[in-house]
From TrEMBL:
Organism: Rhodococcus spongiicola
UniProt-listed Pfam families: ADH_N, ADH_zinc_N
Composition-biased stretches (Basic and acidic residues): 1-15
ATP-binding keyword on record: no
MF-aspect GO terms: oxidoreductase activity
Gene3D superfamilies: Medium-chain alcohol dehydrogenases, catalytic domain (3.90.180.10), NAD(P)-binding Rossmann-like Domain (3.40.50.720)
Source organism superkingdom: Bacteria
Protein's recorded name: Dehydrogenase
Length: 411
């Protein structure tokens, strides 16, 4: 399968990460939860905190005590459009292993007490599956967001224990969970960036081709847009431009602190805006995180340098006109992206652990389980916090101490 990594296992073992984490799983004895507090989201776009029975788990090979569950635009989009049934959302999950079968520990190269980040995918891992057998498990039909829907934060809360997402004190681990070991001392706020930053690395560097000396333009200074700015910075881009609406000025300010030139653009010719921001030189990489579609394609025809790439990660529904002459003459590429490769997760963890990502400047809005309903309602209505880094902290101690900002409590 083209564009997919050769890594067949997908589970990262960092030998330098340390054997265990001194946090919510301080000892290495097996601990299995019984009754678990969870924020259960419902089809009517409300969320209620319930006690779920871990003893009802089906095919659980272990348990994770959840440290953080970062809120993604996908969560809010699904919530707004109506979930299929009661669901424990949350697919950008970090936590500590408190229980694990010996065979699974050996297969993953981790142990009880280790701190890990989960990918959202629950692939079939069948040898007959073209995606899984090629190492591209993120494209497995079983774990597809619109088809099989077997993924962390999307499996029904009425199935088994119901503890299949990160918005709970504990969640069950399955044999097909994808885990990546984290350094024991990685700051909790930075650890919560593991998957979104990995997405950005894949989209901006691996697919977009950003490297030292290039120019990168990011449209949309939201959750993934800020991560894309950080990825471009990590690649050594000579110029980074972040473009957003006047209503997203706070996100543009964060992007500026990360090294981007902020540009407010509410209407008009996006291509002209990009050319002005780059002094007429254009851009090597244009990352559309909001789903502009037609206008992004039109802008790329005018503003991409020779060999430049338009990377589309946002979903939109507007009609599109494609200027094939500009595409061919400029040797441009237009690429759609989903998720990330295992190598991008490895690089994300390494950069976050090095302290060079810059994402520590982004305020973390920590949300305890009891406030998920109100926070989700705000975000659905477009009244969410100015910082894009909203993180559910199921553990009371972590919710009170980690990443507190003036907006950390729902008001």
């Amino acid at each position: 399968m083209r564009g997919c990594p050769k890594d067949r296992r997908g589970n990262r073992v960092n030998k330098d990460a340390g054997a265990s984490v001194k946090s919510i799983a301080a000892d290495t004895k097996q601990r299995r939860p019984r009754l678990v507090r969870a924020a259960v989201s419902l089809p009517d776009a409300t969320t209620t905190v319930r006690m779920l029975d871990a003893d009802l788990a089906i095919d659980a090979v272990g348990w994770l005590e959840v440290e953080s569950s970062a809120v993604c635009g996908t969560d809010i989009g699904l919530y707004r459009s109506g979930l299929d049934g009661p669901t424990v959302l949350g697919h950008h999950v970090v936590g500590s292993i408190v229980s694990l079968d010996a065979a699974q520990a050996d297969a993953w190269g981790v142990a009880v007490g280790d701190r890990v980040a989960l990918e959202e995918y629950l692939p079939c891992q069948d040898a007959a599956c073209a995606a899984c057998s090629s190492g591209c498990y993120r494209m497995c039909p079983q774990t597809d967001l619109w088809k099989g829907k077997r993924r962390v934060g999307l499996v029904s809360a009425e199935e088994g224990s119901g503890l299949h997402g990160g918005n709970a004190e504990f969640m069950q681990l399955a044999a097909n969970s994808i885990v990546h070991k984290l350094p024991a001392d990685l700051d909790p706020d930075l650890a919560a960036w593991t998957q979104p930053f990995a997405n950005a690395i894949d989209w901006t560097i691996n697919v977009g081709g950003a490297q030292e000396g290039t120019t990168v333009v990011v449209v949309g200074p939201g959750y993934h847009g800020i991560a894309a700015v950080a990825a471009a910075r990590a690649a050594g881009a000579a110029q980074i431009v972040a473009i957003g609406l006047s209503s997203s000025v706070e996100g543009l300010e964060i992007a500026e602190v990360l090294g981007a030139t902020p540009v407010v653009h509410d209407d008009g010719d996006l291509g002209e805006v990009i050319l002005r921001a780059t002094a007429g030189r254009g851009t090597d990489v244009l990352v559309d995180t909001v789903g502009l579609e037609g206008s992004a394609v039109a802008a790329s025809a005018r503003s991409l340098r020779t060999g430049g790439r338009l990377v589309v990660s946002g979903l939109g529904s507007t009609p599109m006109y494609l200027d094939l002459k500009a595409l061919v003459r400029g040797a441009h590429s237009i690429v759609g992206v989903r998720g990330r490769s295992p190598s991008a997760v490895t690089r994300s963890i390494d950069i976050l652990a090095s302290g060079s990502s810059g994402l520590d400047v982004v305020p973390t809005v920590a949300v305890p389980l009891d406030e998920v309903d109100e926070m989700f309602a705000r975000m659905v209505e477009g009244r969410g916090p100015s910082s894009p880094h909203v993180v559910v902290r199921p553990q009371p101690v972590l919710a009170e101490s980690a990443g507190r900002t003036e907006e950390s409590r729902v008001s």
